[in-house]
Design goal:
135 residues, 6-stranded antiparallel β-sheet, 31% strand
């Protein structure tokens, strides 16, 4: 089920920083997010709507300063061409509410199954530990 809200509705439920990143496609400073070094087992969910996005088993240390994943839960994200800042990148958004997560990069040579790096803002995520995700 898709989540559609107006900007005013999002502002009422998100902090100003969450709104800036999730709804206005901002970026948090590298190395500042609370999930950069998280290694616990569980599921990462959308910080706006709660949809499940990434299994912790797909998270890896890329050294980029943001949480990095090599694959999303099937159907959880949409990819959008992003031509901002004078370059072409692939933006990733939650498929349920279209909130901005970050960007995906291919072909960087990381030893993962997909050779992709989903570079995701921590503030775009929430985390459910394995014990909570199983309930």
């Amino acid at each position: 089920m898709s989540t559609t809200r107006t900007d005013d509705e999002w502002k009422a439920i998100l902090s100003p920083e969450q709104f800036r990143i999730l709804r206005q496609r901002g970026t948090e400073a590298p190395g500042t997010g609370k999930y950069v070094n998280t290694k616990d087992l569980g599921v990462y969910t959308c910080g706006a709507c709660g949809a499940q996005l990434y299994e912790s088993t797909t998270k890896f240390d890329s050294g980029c300063g943001w949480p990095a994943f090599f694959d999303a839960i099937p159907g959880a994200i949409d990819r959008i061409e992003d031509r901002s800042h004078g370059m072409v990148r692939t933006e990733i958004v939650c498929s349920n509410c279209q909130s901005h997560l970050g960007h995906v990069f291919k072909g960087e040579g990381f030893p993962t199954k997909t050779d992709e790096r989903h570079c995701v803002n921590s503030i775009s995520l929430n985390f459910q530990s394995k014990s909570k995700a199983d309930e």
